Amino acid sequence: MEYHAEIEKSEGWWIGWLVDLPGVNAQERTQEELLESLKIGAEDMLDLKGIHDPKVEIVVPPDSHGHQTKRPNSSAAAQVIEQLKEASKD
User: Fold this and answer.
1) b/e for 20-56, b at 16 or more Cβ within 10 A?
2) pLDDT tens for each residue of 22-57
3) Which of 58, 60, 61, 78 is 20 to 30 Å from the Cα of 15, by its Cα?
4) With respect to CATH, is domain 2-89 assigned 3.30.2390?
């Protein structure tokens, strides 16, 4: 499933967060390391809630570099978010 990331470079660090999975964020020295950390964070967040997604893919919109934009959630990501909300009520 695709998860949309917002990323930017600030003072020698790449920082980013997932729009589709609030609470997943990372900071790394390279963009490649950042995207890998965000992927691991997404997998960990989903696993914590009992959701297994073997195809986590981090997508960076072309306009993400330094510009925060809201993207509509894909229907699959929206379902995961709903599952996370429901699981957090327990």
Assistant:
1) bbeebbbebeeeeebbebbbebbbebbeeeeeeeeeb
2) 999 999 999 999 999 999 999 999 999 999 888 999
3) 78
4) yes
